[in-house]
Design goal:
Blueprint: H1 3-7, H2 11-64, H3 68-81, E1 85-88, E2 99-103, E3 106-110, H4 123-132
Antiparallel strand pairs: 1-2, 2-3
């Protein structure tokens, strides 16, 4: 005996059970697809992070080799690429304010410091910058 006959279900009950089974299978397939998309997304994200890490390392070495004024210029270019309006101050006598960047009506004062792994920027220069402004 098949379907409803073996379970003594009426034709309507058999159709309802089949419809419920079809809906469950569709839901299961959607969840499987979501899981697959998330897995592919994570793999792509990890690949991109690895690629960016390589690029960053290359650019970090280039940035560390720049002169202080060239470093300020590079930072100004970066902020312009991010959509800021940027005004550079003189390279010396700027009282610690190297760039004035404006975006969405908010003004940012930026001091550019190029650090080396063995020569980090300490607390006193940062405190001095904050006290002046």
């Amino acid at each position: 005996m098949k379907g409803g006959q073996s379970l003594n279900l009426c034709a309507t009950c058999v159709k309802e059970a089949e419809e419920q089974q079809r809906k469950w299978e569709e839901k299961f397939e959607r969840e499987r697809q979501k899981f697959e998309i998330k897995a592919k997304t994570m793999a792509l994200k990890n690949q991109e992070l690895a690629r960016l890490a390589k690029i960053r390392l290359k650019h970090e070495e280039e940035l560390l080799s720049l002169s202080p004024s060239d470093f300020e210029d590079a930072v100004a270019v970066l902020y312009r690429q991010l959509g800021y309006s940027v005004e550079q101050t003189p390279y010396s006598g700027d009282f610690g304010k190297d760039l004035v960047a404006i975006k969405d009506g908010i003004k940012y004062l930026i001091e550019c410091k190029r650090y080396q792994p063995d020569k980090r920027i300490g607390r006193p220069p940062l405190q001095n910058f904050l006290q002046q402004w």
